[in-house]
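Why does residue order matter? Because the sequence determines the fold. Keep that principle in mind as you read this record.
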Amino acid sequence: MATITEEVVLPRRAARPRLGPIATLSWRRFQLTVRTPRELFVPLITPILFALVIAPALRTALHTSASYEAFVAVGTIGLLIPLNTVFSGLSVIVDRENGAQRELLAAPIPRSMLVLGNLVVALVVTAFQIGALFVAALARGIDFNTSVSGMGWFLAAAILFTVAMYGVAETLASRVPKQEEYIARVPAIAIVPWFLAGSLFPINALPTFLMWLARFLPITHALALMRYGLLSDSSGLHDIWKMSNAPIMASLSLVVVAVFAAALSAISVRVFARAALH
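Structure:
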């Protein structure tokens, strides 16, 4: 008696797009951000004040050249990025206490997607604010001497530094239970390192122990890269590495910022996942 076998081919499940959840979560976070315009415009006040008021005043008082205004204008980006990312971290606490974070944690998506979705919005908002700062600086008559390759160095440094600082903000938001405690820690995270990173003066003007501390801060490397890219000024890189080859020094600083970005992002995802279990 012959046995007849028939192969049954089951329909394949449609592949779920990997970027779909990130896009959805990012759009949700962006809508929440637009509803509170303070997150877009409040972080701009201090950097624009530095670029348009304080930098010209310091140039006049110290009798420095006109290039000092461009030096400070780029330095203010190192203040804008931490302030913006810290504000983004504050919105994470609000979402956890009064928003839909609990419902999102129950969704069938990796929890790292929530962090990545927030990061995308932080990058977009930061890009908008840096663009507004550039417009204000150009309107003030500040000149940037850059090229295509220089813009590449600047963008790489700005993006990686934003990723690193958002990793810090997300980690802090996951560890701190209340908004008041979070805000109390903002100056130590977003402002103090900025003063040590060569924002208003070269780091070799600092006392020796602070100069060595500055060399280990990612913001010091990020600002040196931004000035190298936008102003063709490698003095900040030389103060860090004490070498003569600018592209090599820039590459080393870029690696430093990239390592910080990768490590802090990984830590933020891990801390967020652990905090979600409680």
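The chain has a mean pLDDT of 81.
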